[in-house]
Amino acid sequence: LNKAKFDNTSKKEKLLVIGDSQAGDVINMLKESGMLEKYDTVSRIVNSRCATPFVDINQTETYLTKLNPITMRDPSLIAQCKTHFSKVLEDNLIESADKVFVVFYWRRFAEKYYMQSINEIAKRTKGSVYVFGMKNLSSDSTFIATKFGKTAGLETFASKFVEGESRVINEHMKKIQGTKFVDLMSITCKSKDSCIVLDESGNPIFSDRN
Questions:
Q1: What letter would DSSP give residue 11?
Q2: Going by DSSP bridges, is the β-strand pair 13-19/180-182 parallel, antiparallel, or unpaired?
Q3: Is the model's pTM score more than 0.85?
Q4: Measuring CA to CA, which residue among 205, 25, 174 is closest to residue 104?
Q5: What is the mean pLDDT of each run of 10 residues along the chain (210 residues)?
Q6: For residues 22 and 130, what is the distance between their CA atoms, to the nearest angstrom?
Q7: pLDDT at residue 2, rounded to an integer
């Protein structure tokens, strides 16, 4: 999946997946469901701590050294973020994709920049752009299940751990012009008062918060 470019001899739809470990989750979903076989897939993984798929080259230095608190605390990340940003836009991948999935651990402090990057992706491609929203709770599945101590009523209890910020981010994501929003939270939480934290065998859904 981390190959340089699409296979122009393939008749499969060209799928570009851009994002951090959340993008890895989506790729695993596609693989487990058998859907991945339908696509010629290329991924471009960006460190989550960069907090956006990319930044305009004229804004990169300011963003990483003065606006992103994570890279400001750890300047060793700056070179990596710059490299990852550049790879997202190389080889005309966006322009030639039939579908682009943008999946990230979205953070409010970077909203201006990731909104700009998604808009730029939508402008560059003739394909369909799918933006995947937040699905995380404020604690991992094991913690929530252990804290409640029983399975009856667990899903209602777990709904109290939905982060308000995640809902706000998702609402903003839904409004991005020229994109299709994928509401992962609606899978985690099928209603406002019910969130799944254990599978049918009693195994935790999330090993961490997201």
A1: -
A2: unpaired
A3: yes
A4: 25
A5: 84 96 93 95 96 96 98 98 93 92 96 96 95 92 94 95 91 95 93 93 85
A6: 14
A7: 66
Predicted confidence at residue 1, as pLDDT, reads 61
AA letter at 101? F
What are φ and ψ of residue 84, in 5° steps? -65, -45
Sequence length of the chain is 210
Using the 8-state DSSP alphabet, how is residue 67 labeled? I
Q: Of all helices (H) and strands (E), which one includes residue 171?
A: helix 164-173
- What is the distance of C-alpha 71 from the center of its chain? 19
For residue 108, how far is the Cα from the chain centroid? 14
Q: What whole-number distance in Å separates Cα of residue 45 and Cα of residue 80? A: 11
Closest C-alpha to 52, from 99, 3, 111, 1: 111
CA distances from residue 129 to 12, 33, 118, 125, 168 in whole angstroms, order as listed: 17, 21, 9, 8, 21
